[in-house]
């Protein structure tokens, strides 16, 4: 039957565990990191040289807590659907489950359920059909994992004499928006240029909130000049949820004078 | 009668293209008009050219990975780039399979080259070549500013040889130039395949395309840069007949590569040395080689000076300071030169091995290529080795030429590396390294700007996946990191040599572990401080182009600077150590206290004395010594400079919380 782990597989599994232990040592215990050793065991049962790469990627991604754990969960899904051994498929399912337990999300539950079902089927054809159905239906019905932490990210500010500007990544579905802290402890005028798009209707894409002002902006280019007090932060928050065939995004340039 | 087997891959590729297009939109991933269209189009191109390839299982694997990343893209910061990379990896792997078919080289590079032409920014030397080419054809559609190394305003330090090749493309704009830039690449690959067939390689087409796609990350497949032309010239040299008939070809190719770009003069010397060794027996005659080389160089310089008015060589490199720089690199700073040689291999931003681990397998294959007999090894190795050595000695620490993709520097090595890889291609360990290289190449394709590193100290790709340790960095030198990765690469070499797959897997996993654990736990590079630590603080120099830091004596690293009282650093309580410098009178206000932050100017390194008038060093921030300060704070505090005070520059912070300790 050949169910025992081969030497190479054992090495991959053991290294995954070693990385996990190292992370526990350096960062402390966290539930979501349980996904890592489970995913390493699951990936180790996949055969073929190129398949080693996902395993390596899991280890590489052990560098950042959220990214690393999510990548481990992703490898868990891969194993749950594609491993020839039931032990590998169940380990993969457990990896996804550990991650979802640590980052509770109702939208991720259908995926966990699909992994559990796939883990129980020995037939390759059945698993392929199940994977294809998941790949189409889950995005189409909006059942996709979403980030647990949706707080807006502070933007990096640069200050010169009487002038400041911010470096902002685009506000997309995957981000919780951006917050711009007041540059100086005195009244200032902020100029915001926003290019919103990626949608097929005229409904708002983002909201800009600052002091007493709240503006919802639809698709298109917008220039805002806001007179703000020293305590006013500016929030740029995405308004759209995932819908197929929409890619909401806002590119933002911000500067201030006082 | 329809051959169903032959249609399997085209149909699977077509399905993959449609699926990538649909899934991208179902998942709502960013850039639907860019990557969301270009990737499906590349798959459709693959469908059009992949008739007759049998195995479609790798397409399924690539699509499974793509689908997973599409599902998870919102929870992984690089999720949608990961999805794009998964799709590209399928294109690459199927390209290898197509390469073994009839007209395989052309068919294999078409989908990938399309993707490269469409995604890589039109920049670097490419723009200057375009300007010269447009002047040649009279279209005049390109105008760019003067660049470092130009002899005079309006006069480029580039020769018109390469622009002549791409000149017809100027009628069709940047895309036309890019397409013309593919011609030297195709010529190189066709000749390389001919060489491999001559050497009896089992899979010449696949090996050729592999080396091209994975060198490193097929960065330069499409952009009009001269590297592939130089590689083609080396292949042409390897195909030359032996004896005196080959001499004329050698001389012609030598002059051609030198005129192509002065960087390749070393390859010309290597060609001549190779011809000389092949056609002259006995030590006495061989001792004449250095004299012959010097004579040839002198002849070239004389011809250029008196017949061509110095337009090819003297005008650009007649500066005696260049010769002085070579002397300094060789005799005054040999340790730095040696270090640069290691960094060529290992640097995370610009080095060869981190982006192309398959080169380790190629290095293992080199002795086998030599042992296999014939003249192929010498004809490929000598021009490549001489080229690299001359380039390093000439340019010293500037060997990489960042922010242009450092890959271009290594292109003349492609023929040698491909021929060497062919000797060990069937080994499992080689396949493992090739698989890893495919993953890295695919990520480079998915993030086009990641090819343009800025000598920041953090590689763009490593930064994207948020790696805790950055490996070897020439900008932030660390002896321990250099030693570790040198030993790591050497062990990998030995494992491939013995074809120990399990050992190599364990080693690679160990390498990943090393990247996962920070080299200095708790330390943060000041210039990379996020908004939770730095508010309003600037970066010195603000321009990220590493060219700005080329002539810095002591460090090439950017720093964080506080030069305005509104700028603040937020520090949590506990024990904090930081490294900072400042002009006379520089002070830092930390909470209610102030500390003296001024530091002294460092003396000019003696190695540079011949280049400067006097020993005075300019009073610039990068020439002041950095000093470490350690404080223990009761709670959170802000760091600023006093009103009107001189700026203070920070290198790094190290924070070890000790809540409750008093200052």
Spell out the blueprint of helices and strands.
The complex is a heterodimer of chains A (258) and B (663).
Chain A: H1 7-27, H2 35-44, H3 52-60, H4 65-82, H5 86-102, H6 109-120, H7 124-140, E1 153-154, E2 156-160, E3 163-167, E4 171-172, E5 178-180, E6 188-197, E7 206-210, E8 213-217, E9 220-228, E10 234-238, E11 249-257
Helix pairs in contact in A: 1-2, 1-3, 2-3, 2-4, 2-5, 3-4, 4-5, 5-6, 6-7
Chain B: H1 4-26, H2 35-49, H3 57-72, H4 79-98, H5 104-119, H6 125-137, H7 161-166, H8 173-198, H9 204-213, H10 227-239, H11 244-260, H12 265-279, H13 283-286, H14 288-307, H15 314-317, H16 320-332, H17 334-346, H18 358-371, H19 376-395, H20 414-424, H21 428-446, H22 460-464, H23 479-497, H24 501-516, E1 523-525, E2 534-535, E3 538-540, E4 559-562, E5 568-571, E6 574-582, E7 587-590, E8 593-596, E9 627-633, E10 637-640, E11 648-656
Antiparallel strand pairs in B: 1-11, 2-5, 3-4, 4-11, 5-10, 6-9, 6-11, 7-8, 7-10
Helix pairs in contact in B: 1-2, 1-3, 2-4, 2-5, 3-4, 4-5, 4-9, 4-21, 5-8, 5-9, 8-9, 8-10, 8-20, 9-20, 10-11, 10-19, 11-12, 12-19, 18-20, 18-21, 18-23, 19-20, 23-24
């Amino acid at each position: 039957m050949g169910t025992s782990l081969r030497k190479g597989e054992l090495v991959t599994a053991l290294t995954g565990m070693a990385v996990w232990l190292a992370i526990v040592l350096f960062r402390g215990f966290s539930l979501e990191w349980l996904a890592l050793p489970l995913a390493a065991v699951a990936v180790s049962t996949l055969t073929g040289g190129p398949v080693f790469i996902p395993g390596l990627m899991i280890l590489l991604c052990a560098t950042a807590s959220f990214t690393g754990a999510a990548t481990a969960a992703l490898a868990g899904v891969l194993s749950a659907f594609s491993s020839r051994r039931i032990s590998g498929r169940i380990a993969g399912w457990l990896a996804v489950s550990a991650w979802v337990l640590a980052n509770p999300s109702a939208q991720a539950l259908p995926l966990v359920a699909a992994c559990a079902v796939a883990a129980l089927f020995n037939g390759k054809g059945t698993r392929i059909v199940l994977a294809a159905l998941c790949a189409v239906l889950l995005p189409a019905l909006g059942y996709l994992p979403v980030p647990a932490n949706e707080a807006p990210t502070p933007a990096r500010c640069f200050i010169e004499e009487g002038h400041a500007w911010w470096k902002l990544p685009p506000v997309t579905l995957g981000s919780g928006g951006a917050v711009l802290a007041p540059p100086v402890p005195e009244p200032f005028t902020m100029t915001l240029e926003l290019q919103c798009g990626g949608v097929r209707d005229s409904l708002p894409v983002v909201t800009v909130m600052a002091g007493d002002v709240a503006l919802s902006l639809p698709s298109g280019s917008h220039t805002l000049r806001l007179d703000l007090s020293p305590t006013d932060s500016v929030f740029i928050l995405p308004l759209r949820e995932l819908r197929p065939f929409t890619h909401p995004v806002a590119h933002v340039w911000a500067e201030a004078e006082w | 009668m329809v051959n169903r087997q032959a249609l399997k891959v085209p149909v699977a590729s077509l399905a993959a293209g449609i699926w990538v297009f649909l899934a991208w939109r179902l998942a709502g991933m960013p850039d639907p008009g860019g990557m969301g269209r270009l990737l499906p189009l590349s798959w459709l191109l693959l469908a059009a050219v992949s008739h007759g390839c049998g195995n479609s299982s790798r397409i399924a694997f690539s699509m499974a990975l793509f689908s997973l990343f599409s599902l998870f893209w919102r929870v992984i910061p690089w999720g949608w780039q990961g999805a794009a990379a998964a799709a590209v990896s399928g294109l690459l792997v199927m390209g290898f399979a197509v390469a073994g078919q009839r007209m395989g080289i052309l068919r294999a590079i078409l989908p990938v080259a399309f993707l490269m032409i469409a995604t890589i920014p039109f920049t670097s030397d490419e723009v200057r070549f375009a300007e010269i080419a447009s002047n040649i054809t009279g279209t005049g559609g390109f105008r760019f500013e003067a660049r470092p190394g130009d002899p005079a305003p309006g006069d480029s330090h580039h020769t018109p040889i390469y622009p002549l090749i791409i000149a017809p493309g100027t009628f069709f704009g940047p895309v036309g130039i890019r397409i013309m830039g593919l011609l030297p690449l195709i010529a190189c690959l066709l000749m390389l395949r001919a060489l491999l067939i001559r050497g009896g390689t089992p899979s010449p087409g696949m090996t050729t395309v592999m080396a091209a796609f994975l060198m490193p990350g097929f960065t330069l497949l499409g952009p009009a840069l001269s590297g592939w032309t130089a590689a083609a010239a080396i292949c042409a040299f390897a195909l030359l007949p032996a004896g005196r008939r080959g001499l004329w070809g050698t001389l012609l190719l030598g002059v051609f590569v030198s005129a192509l770009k002065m960087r390749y003069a070393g390859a010309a010397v290597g060609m001549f040395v190779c011809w000389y060794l092949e056609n002259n027996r006995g030590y006495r005659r061989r001792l004449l080689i250095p004299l012959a080389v010097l004579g040839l160089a002198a002849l070239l310089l004389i011809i250029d000076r008196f017949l061509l008015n110095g337009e090819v060589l003297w005008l650009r490199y007649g500066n005696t300071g260049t010769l002085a720089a070579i002397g300094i690199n060789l005799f005054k700073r040999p340790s730095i030169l040696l270090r640069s040689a290691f960094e060529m291999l290992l640097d995370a931003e610009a080095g060869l091995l981190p982006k192309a681990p398959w080169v380790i397998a190629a290095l293992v294959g080199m002795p086998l290529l030599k042992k296999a007999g014939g003249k192929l090894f010498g004809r490929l190795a000598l021009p490549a080795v001489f080229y690299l050595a001359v380039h390093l000695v000439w340019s010293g620490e500037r060997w990489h030429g960042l922010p242009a993709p450092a890959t271009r520097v290594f292109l003349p090595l492609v023929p040698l590396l491909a021929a060497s890889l062919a000797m060990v291609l069937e080994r499992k360990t080689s396949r493992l390294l090739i698989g890893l290289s495919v993953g890295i190449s695919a990520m480079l394709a998915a993030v086009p700007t990641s090819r343009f590193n800025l000598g920041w100290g953090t590689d763009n790709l490593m930064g994207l996946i948020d790696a805790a340790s950055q490996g070897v960095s020439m900008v932030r030198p660390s002896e321990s990191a250099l030693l570790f990765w040198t030993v790591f690469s050497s062990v990998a070499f030995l494992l491939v040599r013995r074809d120990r797959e399990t050992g190599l897997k364990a080693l690679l996993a160990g390498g990943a572990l090393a990247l996962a654990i920070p080299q200095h736990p708790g330390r943060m590079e000041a210039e990379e401080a996020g908004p939770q630590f730095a508010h309003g603080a600037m970066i010195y120099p603000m321009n990220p182009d590493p060219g700005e830091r080329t002539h810095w004596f002591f460090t090439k690293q950017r720093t964080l600077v506080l030069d305005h009282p509104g700028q603040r650093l937020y520090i949590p309580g506990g024990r904090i150590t930081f490294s900072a410098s400042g002009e006379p009178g520089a002070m830092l206000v930390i909470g209610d206290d102030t500390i003296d932050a001024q530091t002294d100017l460092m003396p000019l390194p003696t190695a540079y004395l011949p280049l400067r008038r006097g020993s005075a060093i300019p009073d610039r921030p990068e020439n002041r010594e950095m000093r470490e300060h350690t404080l223990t704070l009761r709670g959170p505090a802000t760091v600023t400079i006093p009103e009107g005070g001189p700026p203070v520059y920070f290198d790094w912070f190290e924070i070890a919380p000790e809540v409750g300790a008093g200052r």
